[in-house]
Design brief:
The chain is mainly alpha-helical. It is built from six helices and three strands, in the order H-H-E-H-H-E-E-H-H. Helix 1 crosses helix 5. The protein is globular and about 55 Å long.
């Protein structure tokens, strides 16, 4: 019988992730009347290309399904947080970009997000926080390796 340490680690990661996400969702809703998904859309636009990204590219980066993204974008457009525009490269491709209102909201939310992250993880020392970050990076890398198709399979012998 193998050790159940990996299962215990997985359960702790899942519980931690869910707890933190729920708390952030609650805080975003209470303070800004926004969701984590909206914050995530604005974050992708802010980080990768403030002048606009194809909707498909934004959807790839998010946790929400493509159908949910379409409705989410529709609501955000109606609230003037983002706008649709044709791609300068291929006019058939619809891009989205932040409006001034969206950028201002994102910058406020991003600062609050950073403050809340520090508050929620504040019981960890700086060294523990750095160690946790490194372990999570290694965990994500190991997961990626374990789940990616083998591009160099062993030849049949």
């Amino acid at each position: 019988m193998t050790s159940d340490i990996h299962l215990k680690v997985w359960l702790q990661l899942a519980k931690s992730s869910k707890s933190i996400e729920q708390e952030m969702e609650t805080r975003f809703h209470q303070r800004y009347r926004q969701s984590m998904s909206r914050f995530d859309v604005l974050s992708q636009l802010y980080r990768y290309n403030p002048d606009g990204l194809p909707m498909g590219k934004v959807a790839e980066q998010l946790l929400a399904s493509r159908g949910n993204i379409t409705r989410l974008v529709d609501r955000m457009v109606n609230e003037h947080l983002i706008e649709r525009c044709a791609s300068p490269i291929d006019r058939r491709v619809i891009q989205i970009r932040m409006t001034r209102k969206g950028r201002q909201l994102f910058e406020q939310m991003a600062q609050a997000h950073a403050d809340w992250s520090e508050e929620l993880l504040g019981d960890l020392t700086a060294a523990e926080t750095q160690q946790l970050l490194e372990l999570l990076k290694r965990t994500n890398h190991a997961f990626k390796i374990a789940t990616e198709p083998d591009i160099n399979p062993e030849p049949d012998r």
